[in-house]
Amino acid sequence: MRLVANILITALAIGLSALILGSHMDIVSNGTALGTILATVVIAIVYGLVHMIVKPIVQLISLPLYILTLGLVSVLVNTLMLWITTLITNQTWFSDTPNWGLEVTGGFWWYVLAALVISVVQAILLAVLPKRISD
Questions:
Q1: How far apart are CA 108 and CA 112, in angstroms?
Q2: With contact defined as beta carbons under 8 Å apart, do 110 and 95 qualify?
Q3: pLDDT, tens digit, 9 for 90 and up, residues 123-133
Q4: How far apart are CA 124 and CA 101, in angstroms?
Q5: How much is the pLDDT for 17?
Q6: Cβ atoms within 10 A of the Cβ of 25, count?
Q7: What secondary structure letter does DSSP report for 24?
Q8: CA dihedral 10, 16, 19, 22 (to 10 degrees)
């Protein structure tokens, strides 16, 4: 139950972040409401897997930077995780144009802002939801 709740919270955070950032962050889907919801859930699953598999390795490698910057490098690590997620999900697997995925346009600083917005929205959602669901 906790895994499903975390996936749905992440999907909601990504969806709200796409609404907040407007034209710089987009969820690519087939255009229907169901397609957008499914694409957002799949993006949330990929984002969670990237955080589960890649993030601990990057944190271990960048441990001296965490100590030196008193943890501020975590913003850059979250930005890297978002960039990896966009690389995985926004691929042209079966055609020349992406069928689904997460797209952040505008360069590095928009990735940083998108990662910050996703983290803040996730924190707010976790604070608002009952403790029983997220445990």
A1: 6
A2: no
A3: 998 888 877 65
A4: 24
A5: 94
A6: 24
A7: G
A8: -60
| CB neighbour class for 40 (10 Å; exposed up to 12, middle 13-18, buried from 19) | buried
Q: How far apart, in whole angstroms, are the C-alpha atoms of residue 71 and residue 78? A: 12
Q: How many CB atoms lie within 10 A of CB 99?
A: 15
Assign 116 to helix, strand or coil.
helix
Query: How far apart (Å, rounded) are the C-alpha atoms in residues 25 and 37?
Result: 15
CA quadruple 69, 58, 43, 79: dihedral sign: positive
What digits encode the pLDDT tens for the residues 79-100? 999 999 999 988 766 566 667 8
pTM above 0.85, yes or no: yes
pLDDT at 48: 94
What is d(CA 44, CA 15) in angstroms, rounded to the nearest whole number? Answer: 9
